[in-house]
Amino acid sequence: MAGSCCGSTRVVPRLDPAPCNALTQAAAGLLVPRAEVAGIAPGGAVSATRSVDVDVQAPAAGVCPETWTVGARLTPVSGEAFGADANLQAAASGTWVATSAQVVLPEAGTYALSADFYSHINATTPWAVAINARLFNVTAGAPVPGTNRRIQFGNINDPGGGTVMSLQNAGSLRTFLTVTGPTTVRVEGLRQYVGFNDSTQAVLAGPRLDFVKVSD
User: Fold this and answer.
1) What is this structure's pTM?
2) CA 137 to each of CA 98, 109, 203: distance values in angstroms, whole numbers, following the listed order
């Protein structure tokens, strides 16, 4: 709107009162938008549903100009489980045996999985027995791809025979797994009788499984 008085001209801006505009016209004058940031207070609780937590520190009341302090920290969900020794000898050769080393991946995302254990075989020579280990996706009812590993193989061909021999070996598994929701994963072991005499004792011992979320 334009007008004139005593030979002068003044211009009053016309404002669109839409709420998303930069300025708002009110009875008290022009209102300038003010941003307020919300988040977890510094050192606050870590959420189990996020990989990154944001800290927000507001300025003191009445400070001008206002300075907001925003920080972030990585807080990936993680977990670990220890299981009891698994008796592989009690199952038929070639049968996978579940251990109690089991974790629950709590949410959708990609996880780094790591497992370690050791295997133990007792047998009377000559003998040939192998032990494998893998990770099993209990929720999907399927092995975790690429995790089937030969942990130990003993091929003792003693011409005299009759000697009891024991072998132990440490093993580990590492992989990445992407899931769409909460998922249970466990360690499994298998004894494979491949020739000569079968074992008299086969164990996947001290199983441990951990996870760390690496991306959403």
Assistant:
1) 0.71
2) 11, 15, 21
